[in-house]
Every structure is written in C-alpha cells, then in structure tokens.
Amino acid sequence: MNQRYRGITLAVVGACFWGASGTAVEFLFSNTNVDTSWLVGLRLIFSGILLMLYACYKYWDKVKAMFHDKKAVIMLILFAFLGMGSSQLSYFVAVKYSNAPTATVIQFLAPVFIIIYSSIRSKMLPRRIDLISIFVAVGGTFILATGGRFDQLALSPMACLWGLIAAISEAINTVMPGSLFKKYGTIPVVGTAMLMAGIAFLPNYFTQPMPKLTPVDISVIVYIIIGGTLLAYTMYLSSVQYIDPSTVGMLGAFEPLIATILSVTLLHADFGPMDMFGGFLIIVATFMQLVPTKDMVKNE
C-alpha cells in the first residue's frame, strides 16, 4: 500500500473509532446507571496498561529514559491531569448533558484556544485567516447552543460549560506534550499519561457500587477501551508518520461525522438542521486554520 494511502487510512479509521466511542458512551449513559467518573477511570486505566505494555515491548529504552528524566516526569504528571484526564472526563460529562455529536463538535473548538494561547505566548496578533476562523467558530458555537434563536438555549448551560472545558483540555492535550512526543515518542507518553490519570480514579471503585451491566453493556465498554481508545490513539497518531499533521487534522473531521451518523440513526439523538449547520461552521473554522498564508509560503 502507498504510504500516503496508508496514512490517510490510519487517520480516517482512528477518527471513526473515536466518533463511534462517543456514541457508545451516549448509549451507556442512556441505558445504564454507569457513573461518569467510573467509566472514565476504567477507560484510562485499562487503555493505559495496554499501551504501556506495548510501549515497554517496543520502546523500552525510551520508556526507561523518560522515567529517569525528572523534568519529563513532572511534565507527564501535568499532562496526565490537565490534558489527558481532564479532556476525557469533560468530554464524557458533555456527552451526558447533551449527546455525542454535540459534545464532539464543541470539542473541535480546541484549535481556537490553541490560536489564542499561541498569540499570547508570542505576543503577536493571530493571522487574518485565524481571526476569521475564530469568528466562524464562535458563530457555529452560538448556533449550536441556541438553535439559531436569540431568546433561548438549545443546550443546557452544563452541556455548554463542559463542552468548552473539553475543548480547552483538548487544546492542552495538543500543545503540552509536544516536546515529550519528540523526545520519547507518542505511545510511551500517551500510555503513561493515561495510566497516571486513571490511577486518580481508583478510589471510585472502592466507594461506588458496581453498576448493573448486561452482556451488551460490557461489550460496549470493551469497545470504548479497545476500539475507542487504544486503537483510535495508536492509529491516529501513527498516521503522522506517513502524512503531514495538517492533513491528519483535516481527516479528524470524520470523528464528529461518524458520531452524528451513529447517534442520530441508532440512538435517535436530537441533532437537527441548525445543529448540523453550527457543527459544520466549527469544522470549517478548523480547516480554515490550515490554509497557508503568503508569509508561510515565503518561509517555505
């Protein structure tokens, strides 16, 4: 298989696994008494263990060097709780208060927060295309939250709040571990961060009763851990080896697409034309940030 096609396939399938996991989470919240923190902790712990086993098998030298680097360990801890754990928990809560398509689309606001952070850090104004994309993204969020009406909220305040927290956490997920990825690789860093964040949820399993689960519920949880986390992360991150990150970012749009299709068709989620239009604007805003400017072309 051509390397470019391999990269595109990995990115698309990884994004689809992520999108389907959002629908799986929505199914569990609608049909079981599963607690949010219980499910997030389970996902992080088991996915973290599996990724770490793979990392120790294939990247043992990098794993060993990473844990001997005090600065790297401190950065890992911050990434685990401010990025990985926070993004997982806030996204699941956002799904609980809304639905998988809405939570996934709002999380796509992460690039907007990255632009704002980069501008503050560099003390430079964003590019014109970035400012336009922020305006488009805010407009899409407004339509998604209000249904296009000024006199009401289509989403609950809690859904909006947790969706925005998920977007900010996802921005941290993208920016914070960059230097760690370059030095120690994505799989060791992601696996360690997942396991660290998951350990913080361990007290829940001693204080909360075990939820009543059917075989179908258990199979959905297994999918969330294996397909929606382990395979999704490894495939999506591996795609960067074959295609450039900007293309990977664009293909990430399959995540909200799949979440919407599955939630609307299988779970009959309320996601009408105005919601789709608002989500479309947010995704378009993400693509706009990938447009090269004259300055970028000159630098090349």
TrEMBL record:
Membrane-spanning ranges: 38-60, 72-94, 100-117, 129-147, 184-206, 218-236, 248-268, 274-291
Transmembrane helix found in the keyword field: yes
Keyword vocabulary terms for this entry: Membrane, Transmembrane, Transmembrane helix
Subcellular location: Endomembrane system
Pfam families hit by this protein: EamA
UniProt KW Transmembrane helix keyword: yes
InterPro entries linked to this entry: AA-Vitamin_Transporters, EamA_dom, EmrE-like
Sequence similarity: Belongs to the EamA transporter family.
Name by which UniProt lists this protein: Predicted permease
